[in-house]
Amino acid sequence: MIDGLGIAGWGVGEIEAKVTMLGQPTSMVLPGVVGFKLLGKLRDGVIATDLVLIVTQMLRKHGVVGKYERVYLILEYAPKGDVYKELQKCKYFI
């Protein structure tokens, strides 16, 4: 699934593609949604790769990685959560 910009994408097999091209209905499982909010800034010497590895480790601990889940990451480096507040105004989050 592709979700960096709110785009959903699924891989399909040959049969599913042919059935869809012929106008027949097909079904799919909708993913669950997991929110993950990061606030603050990285300490000196910590790079983005370190952050991604820790986030992946935390998601695995909660059983998300390897499943068909939709994960939203909110990376917030602005003081007092300005980006998150703007997203709330736009109704992206409840």
Structure description:
Residues 1-67 form the Aconitase/3-isopropylmalate dehydratase large subunit alpha/beta/alpha domain. There is one protein chain. Helix content is 32%, strand content 17%. It contains three helices and two strands; from the N terminus they run αβαβα. The protein has helices spanning 14-21, 48-61, 82-89, and strands at residues 32-39, 69-76. It has a two-stranded parallel sheet with strand order 1-2. Strand 1, helix 2 (48-61) and strand 2 (69-76) form a beta-alpha-beta unit. The two termini are 23 Å apart. The model has no long low-confidence stretch (mean pLDDT 69).
Order of helices and strands: HEHEH
What fraction strand? 15-25%
**Averaged pLDDT:** 69
Q: What's the number of extended β-strand segments?
A: 2
Radius of gyration: 18 Å
Q: Fraction of residues in helices? A: 25-40%
Uncertain stretches:
none
Q: How widely separated are the two ends?
A: 23 Å
- Major beta sheet, strand line-up: 1-2
Taking the sheet with the most strands, its summary is:
2 strands, parallel
- Secondary structure class reads alpha+beta
Number of helices: 3
Shape: elongated
GO molecular function: 3-isopropylmalate dehydratase activity; iron-sulfur cluster binding; metal ion binding
Domain Aconitase/3-isopropylmalate dehydratase large subunit alpha/beta/alpha: 1-67
Pfam families: Aconitase (PF00330)
Keywords: Iron, Iron-sulfur, Lyase, Metal-binding
Labels describing this entry:
94 residues; alpha+beta; two-stranded parallel sheet; 3 helices; 2 strands; elongated; lyase; iron
